[in-house]
Every structure is written in structure tokens, then in C-alpha cells.
Amino acid sequence: MKNKKGLIILCVLAGISLILGGTSFVKKIKDKTLFKPSFSFSASNSLENFDEDFEDETSSGMNKLLSLCRGNKKEEVSPSTKKPYVAVIYITGVISEANETYNQKWLLKQIKKAAENQNNRGILLCIDSPGGTVYESDEAYLALKDYHESTNRPVLSYFGSLTASGGYYIACASEYIYANRNCLTGSIGVIAGEHIDITGLLDKVGIRMTTITTGKNKNMGNVNEPLSKEQREIMQSIADEAYEQFTEIVADSRKMKIEEVRKLADGRIYTAKQAKKNGLINEICSFEKAKDEIRNHFLKNSDNDDSEKKGEEVEFVEYKYYYEENLLSLFKGISSFIKDPTSAVYKATSLPAAKCFYLYR
User: Most buried residue among 27, 28, 349, 357 by CB atoms closer than 10 A?
Assistant: First the structure.
């Protein structure tokens, strides 16, 4: 009886997965986006747009099919070396290793490319993010600090509708922060994992889940075991340490006393006006005005010893990360569920209990 219940649950989940996959597949066909590249690169102004020509008459039918299924990558093009430019790097969505709106490797690559390009004059971060993982937020922050220290070029930020927690953390690498007047920011705090206890539900449906471990805290955070007092203290200590790191970085970036930062850093969000009043941002303006001020103040009046670079015309070149599903990625999701449904269900329902987040939600 128990095995039948488990089989029914797995069948239902498999059906839902197939329906969602089929719906996404049909939508992609209707929108004519099914066969677009998995990863693409967009840049404006001095960058040219390169698109794959899938309709090449010389290509064989089999090569076309393989190309479409793989989701070929677009060529990433370096900024024009003829004109000086500021790299406008967009940070959008939840900050993590990789997802549909954000990719850590892509971001670090853009920072590195800007540092290595002699015509680069600075980085302007355009951030619209609720934050994300502690690791990736700090890694991006350190990469930007290294960029500034190695090149002596400015790092600046512009906040869109929401720049909170990890998004604000990354912006602390900036020497000046602009924000849209409708922006929400702040949320300086930490989420140290989440835990769902489903032992009561498992008992009701007659399922017993056992985990064999070699330590009393090895199974900490698993869905089949309630958190003990000691385990709560362990997770709290992790959150406290990440919080100290966050507040120290804010204090250093905004030239504030740590006590002042801690008063503001209770996890709440702030409007643009409130953030400016509390010293968390510098100026409220439109994106275009921010670019004008950067041209007039940070570039023309920079401390750079090269007099030829002062007063020069500078372009703003945009870099945006895009992710689009392709035929192969849809089939991979379905095939992984069929091969190992237990692991697929666990991965979909489990939470990263031991991972820390600088995240607003």
C-alpha cells in the first residue's frame, strides 16, 4: 500500500513535469524563440550585433538540426578599440552561480575584460536585484574592488526599481551611488538557510524516511528531522558572522561608523529618499542624468595624470546577460526526471539549508 502511494505521487509529479515542459515547448515555438542560443551577449553603441544565420543555404539539414538542439552561443565581441568607453554592466535578478537572469562567470568576465581594455574609463553598474547568495555577492564585490585598485578607474552604481541586500552589497564597491526616485534599497541582513520539517506529514501518509549519519548534526536541516536548539545556534552563528561582514563593508564604503550602520541594518528596506537621508546612496536622479554627471565629474575631473584623457568624448557601452531555453535543455529536464525521479523530486523540493543569503523578498 505504501509503495502504491509513493508510485502514485511520482506519477503525478512526472505528469506535471511533462505538462510544464510541453507548455514551455509550445510557447517557445509560438514566440519563435525555441531555437535561440542558450547564452547570448548584448552590447550597444560601439558594439556590433552578431546573430547566427540558421538559414544558410549551404548547411545540410542534419547540421541545422544539431545546431538548433545545441543552442549555439553567440560570439562575444570586445568593445571598439577606437573610442574610450564606460562599461555599463547590468546586474539583474537573484544573485547566484547561474540562473535565467544572472550568471556569475559572465559578470566576472565583463569586469576582467574592462580592466584589460586600455580604452575603458570606468564601470557603471546598473543594478536591479533583490540580492542573493553571500558567496557570489562577495566575490563580485571583491572583483570590482580589485578592478578599481589595479586600474585607478572609477566604479559607480545606478539603482533601478529594487537594489537590496546582496545587490546593495555589490554596490558598496562603488565610490558614488545614484538611484531612481522610485527605488527600494537596503535590506541589510542575512538569511542563513531555511528548514522545512515534514515529519508530521510523512507520519500521516505512512512514509518513514531515515538518514544514517556519523554525527548528531550531520543531518541538520534535512526535511525528516526537526532542528534542535544546538542546531539553531549553529545556524545563527553563521548568520551573525555574515552580518558582521556585510555591515563592516557598508561602513567602509559609505564612510560611516559601524554603530550607525547597525542601526540601519535591521533587514528593512528604504525608499530612495530615506536611503539618501541615511547616507546609503549619494544622489536621486534619472539614468540619463547619472551618465551626464559621470561624464562631467568623474571622467573630465578625474585624478588621472594623463591629460589627454581629460575632456575626451566617452561612450557608454551596455553589457546585459541573457539566458534562453532551447530544445535540448527542455529534454534534459524531462530525461533527468525519468532516469532518477527520486533525486529530481528531492532537488526540486529541498532548500539549501546551509547556504547563506543576502536576499530581500
Answer: 357
